[in-house]
Amino acid sequence: MYTRSKLAQQCGINIEVLRYYEKKGLIQPPARSPSGYRLYTEDYIHRIRFIRNAKEVGFTLSEISELLRLRTTRTRQCRTVMTQAEKKLTEVDQKIQSLQSIKKALKGLILKCQKTVPSEECPILTSFDSGKRSRRNRME
């Protein structure tokens, strides 16, 4: 059995994260000792590691909640999980494209910059005032 602080330490997370996971329903409130301390079992370690690992590959807490539900639903097939992973991959590809557009725009602004010009005339700053909307802004 683990206290809240020992569980957090074991999982490499902050105690506040445990509270948050409980609040969001990702982990159930544990049993309490006679003195009122929360006592966590080994199962909590596995669940928290699952949550942390899913977060590392980009799943949101809401999506992780669904994955946890699917993990314990025997009537579903792996195909359901694979569909969610494919959807996440599509989102990641879209983010990468968006970041590449941002990178290209920043490179273009940097190339226009003239280091010796006063900052009030800086092409980077004036481009933000110009009212010209980038391709990225038009898409949003």
Summarize the topology.
Layout: H1 4-11, H2 15-23, E1 31-32, E2 38-39, H3 42-56, H4 61-71, H5 78-112, H6 123-129, H7 135-139
Low-confidence stretches: 136-140
Q: What percent of residues are in strands?
A: under 5%
> How are the strands of the largest sheet arranged?
1-2
Q: For the residues shown, what is the average pLDDT?
A: 89
What structural category do the secondary elements indicate?
Answer: mainly alpha
Q: What Rg is obtained from the alpha carbons, in whole angstroms?
A: 23 Å
Q: Roughly how many Å apart are the termini?
A: 49 Å
Name of the level-1 CATH class of the domain at 4-76: Mainly Alpha
Enter the CATH topology name of the domain at 4-76: Multidrug-efflux Transporter Regulator, Chain: A, Domain 2
Q: What is the tally of helical segments?
A: 7
What is the CATH architecture annotation of the domain at 4-76? Orthogonal Bundle
- The total beta strand count reads 2
Largest sheet: 2 strands, antiparallel
How would you spell out the order of helices and strands?
HHEEHHHHH
> What gross morphology would you assign?
elongated
**Helical residues, percent:** 55-70%
Organism: Nitrospina watsonii
InterPro entries: DNA-bd_dom_put_sf (IPR009061), MerR-type_HTH_dom (IPR000551), MerR_fam (IPR047057)
Keywords: DNA-binding
Domain HTH merR-type: 1-70
